[in-house]
Each structure stands twice: as structure tokens, then as C-alpha cells.
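Hi R.,

As promised on Friday, here is the backbone we talked about, encoded as C-alpha cells. Could you run it through your design pipeline when you get a chance and send me back a sequence?
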């Protein structure tokens, strides 16, 4: 088997550890220490969240979607593929190195979503962007960590707290949807979503999106009839 090759290390701004990029042929892996966060060959964690989330707002005119975490670009390209030509996809990415990797290393694998005219890139903390506006997005899709707690960055905990959920809910337009990715189920997080008066759908998908491999959890939370 071809061994992994270390390509780069980049710091996570603030309180996070290093992100490490490896390659093996045309396969790429982003890791924190020994934990693999994402792999270019197994990306249903990204496009599954985006596809199912955007399906709920697909018929809206001038849909506006906020994606927390650029990752390897699959969430972004899937959103673009599932929305109309008048949509806007705002991508919040905290780590400048991840943006550089998408532009110059593996962006071709996802179809270079950063080059799409409907894409707006915001380099910074998605939590700050969520706090900026109310009734601004039709969907907010968060795949910023390994689950409903901070692994890559402890301050990510805010996004999954009662306060963070309330801010994200209020940043939605009427009948907007919040989407969250997690490596595993989390009953306490679901309770927090319910406390925010959200209707919650929990979906499990396989690593390949067809029921095979390790299973991951998606949550889609909606405040029905919000005005």
C-alpha cells in the first residue's frame, strides 16, 4: 500500500490545535493529531448534510445558505448543485490554510466551488457571522467539528449550546432550517434543540452515503411558521 505523505501543517486560530494535511496518490486526508476529520474519498459527511438541507429550501427564490466549514469543498459544491442560479452560498472558514488547500491542492476534486459566482467566502468564525444578522438565511449548515462539542477548537462548544442554537435559529428566515453533522448520536444536544422550540429530524447515513461503513448523524431543525 502506498504510504501517506505529509503535505502541510496549519494552526487553527484561537484555541485550536494544528490541522495536518496528508496525501496518498489522489487521496487527501485532513487530521487533528491521530483523528481524521475528513477524507477526499469518503465525503458523505459533507455532501449528505448539504444535499438533505438544501432539499428543504430548493424551491425558494434567491435562497441564501450559510455553510460553517469549507472542509474539502463538497458541502459547498453540493449546495450549489441543488440550488437555483439566483441563490447565494456563504461559506465561513476559520482556517486560512484550509482555503489555500482548496484553491491550490485538492479543489479540483470537488469542482472548485470557490470559483462559482454564487459563492461568497468569509474567512472567520461562523459563530460571529451567525451573531451578525437576524432573518438572514434560509439554511445554516454546520460541519465545523466532530460532533456536538468542540474537538478541533473548544470555543466551538458555543455553536451547540442553548445560546448558540438560539442565535442560529434567529438568524434564519421564516421556515428556515438548521443542519448539524455529528460523528455520533447525542441525546442531550437533541434536547437543547427542542428547548429552542425547534422541530427536529435525525438522520443516520453511512460513510459512503449508501449504508456502508461507519455511520454518522445529521440533525435538521426547523422552527415551523416563524415570522
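Update: got your reply. Pasting your designed sequence below so it's all in one thread:
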Amino acid at each position: 500500500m502506498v504510504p501517506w505523505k505529509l503535505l502541510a501543517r496549519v494552526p487553527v486560530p484561537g484555541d485550536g490545535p494544528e490541522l495536518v494535511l496528508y496525501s496518498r496518490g489522489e487521496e487527501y486526508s485532513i487530521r487533528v493529531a491521530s483523528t481524521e476529520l475528513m477524507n477526499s474519498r469518503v465525503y458523505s459527511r459533507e455532501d449528505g448534510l448539504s444535499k438533505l438541507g438544501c432539499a428543504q429550501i430548493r424551491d425558494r427564490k434567491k435562497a441564501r445558505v450559510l455553510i460553517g466549514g469549507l472542509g474539502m469543498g463538497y458541502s459547498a459544491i453540493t449546495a450549489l448543485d441543488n440550488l437555483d442560479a439566483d441563490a447565494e452560498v456563504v461559506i465561513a472558514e476559520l482556517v486560512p490554510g484550509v482555503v489555500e488547500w482548496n484553491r491550490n491542492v485538492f479543489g479540483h476534486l470537488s469542482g472548485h466551488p470557490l470559483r462559482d459566482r454564487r459563492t461568497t467566502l468569509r474567512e472567520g468564525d461562523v459563530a460571529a457571522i451567525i451573531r451578525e444578522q437576524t432573518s438572514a438565511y434560509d439554511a445554516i449548515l454546520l460541519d465545523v467539528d466532530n460532533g456536538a462539542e468542540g474537538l478541533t477548537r473548544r470555543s466551538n462548544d458555543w455553536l451547540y449550546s442553548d445560546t448558540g442554537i438560539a442565535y442560529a435559529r434567529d438568524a434564519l428566515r421564516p421556515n428556515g432550517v438548521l443542519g448539524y453533522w455529528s460523528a455520533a448520536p447525542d441525546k442531550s444536544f437533541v434536547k437543547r434543540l427542542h428547548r429552542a422550540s425547534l422541530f427536529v429530524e435525525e438522520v443516520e447515513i453511512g460513510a459512503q452515503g449508501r449504508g456502508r461503513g461507519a455511520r454518522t448523524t445529521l440533525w435538521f431543525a426547523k422552527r415551523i411558521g416563524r415570522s
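One thing I noticed while checking it: Residues 28 and 40 are 5 Å apart (CA to CA).

Thanks again,
M.
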